[in-house]
Amino acid sequence: MTSLTRRTFMGGCAAATLLAVTGTTGARAVTGTTASTTASDEAALQAAISDLAHPPATSAQLRVDRRGDHWYGTAGAADLGSGRAVRPDDRFRAGSVTKAFVATVILQLWAERRVELEAPIGRYLPDLLPSAFSRRITVAQLLNHTSGLPDHRGLPDDSTPEGVLRHRWDRWTPREWVETVTHDPLKFAPGTAQEYRGINYVLLALLIEKLTGHPYGHAIESRVLRPLGLTRTLLPGQDPRLHGPQVRGYLRMSDGSLRDITVYNQSSAWGEGELISTLDDLSRFQQALFSGALLPPHALDKLFTLPPDSVRMLDGTPARYSLGLQTATVNGVTFWGKTGETYGYRTRMFTTRDQSLRFILSYTPTPLTTQEDMTNRVVAALTA
After folding, report:
1. Residue 131 is a catalytic residue
2. What is the C-alpha to C-alpha distance for residues 311 and 321, in angstroms, rounded to an integer?
């Protein structure tokens, strides 16, 4: 399985696995702070992140906001060498949480009447895709993953942890990445089905650049990061390092050894999964986005608009991606937000629409692929 396919599969399935919640497990290696929830809530949340064996992980941190009460807890170490505990201002790779920032800027540009969501992408980017694609796929269909773009061809084989290390320095341009999905017919008629695909947001980031005349990261910085004071969040481009206080990521090799995977060229995730952030910054973004500080009401509503009931995921389950977010309902509680991951890092950022319950989970799993045990434990504790 190629790198993008694996990232797409894991990020795309995360909302579904939230629906299959398991119970909490016993606490292990507990460190952290407490706040305003009940003692039983605190214990359950701490236990949920402290089992660093299921899945195997080196650290975890969780922030919960419930009707004005705040709780933050950690487990494990930000750096195995020093043993330092995780802090909420430590940088980590947030993966596909990037897409929520890209979607926010696209919806801002739509609210400014600089782009039409129902217009074909070929109107704005005429030379990137085959004409049969660019005439049929709309901006909105890129946003909600109903484009039908074909699978990638010609990607390096990183189906093993050793392969990941071999290709960690590979450099891609966005146009080279788009080229890998131009060799086969559309998988389905645009707008008729839903399949989570990172390439949709590579095209949207290129659209931002075309509309603004600036790199998409600069547009996010000027429209989101600076207004909110998110000083620890950035889009790294070709810079493979995190810089400053950080949570380090590790990957388990086939022989059982751990390798540090923190330094990694993210050009293959350009526009869709390269964000570097902190728990504090993501919490501020989450609150501002859902409070309407970044989008006018008619644009904010787009974040909560799913495709028609006739549109299904390829496995037949209901569509779960809106124009920028994803949704899951657990124990009668409906969450909206975004998942994100890259090698050594996993982030889950979700809230109810009224923000009565918000959580951000960031942890550092060591297997190349892993299940959602920790996420499920956290959601079970929050919705019990």
Report:
1. no
2. 11
Spatial separation of the C-alpha atoms in residues 353 and 355, rounded to whole Å: 5
CA-based nearest residue to 247, from 105, 369, 86, 135 = 86
DSSP letter, residue 312: E
Q: Are strands 57-66 and 326-330 parallel, antiparallel or unpaired?
A: unpaired
In the chain, pLDDT over 70 holds for what percent of residues? 90
CB contact burial 280-305 (16+ within 10 A = b; e otherwise): bbbbbbbebbbeeebbeeebbebbee
State pLDDT tens for residues 202-260.
999 999 999 999 999 999 999 999 999 999 999 999 999 999 999 999 999 999 999 99
- pTM reported for the whole predicted model: 0.92
- Which among 182, 15, 208, 249 has a CA at the least distance from the CA of 101? 208
Backbone angles phi, psi at 64, to 5 degrees: -125, 130
Distance, CA of 3 to CA of 33 (rounded, Å): 36
- Token pair 């399935």 is found at 13
Q: At 335, is the secondary structure helix, strand, or coil?
A: strand
Q: Which of 96, 134, 322, 362 is catalytic?
A: 96
Tell me: the pLDDT tens digits for 67-99?
989 999 999 999 999 999 999 999 999 999 999
Question: What is the amino acid identity at position 370?
Answer: T
pLDDT in tens, 21-60: 322 222 323 333 333 467 778 999 999 999 999 999 999 9
Cα 312 from Cα 123, distance rounded (Å) = 27
Q: Exposure string (b/e) for 343-358, b if CB count within 10 Å is 16 or more? A: bbbbbbbbbbeeeebb
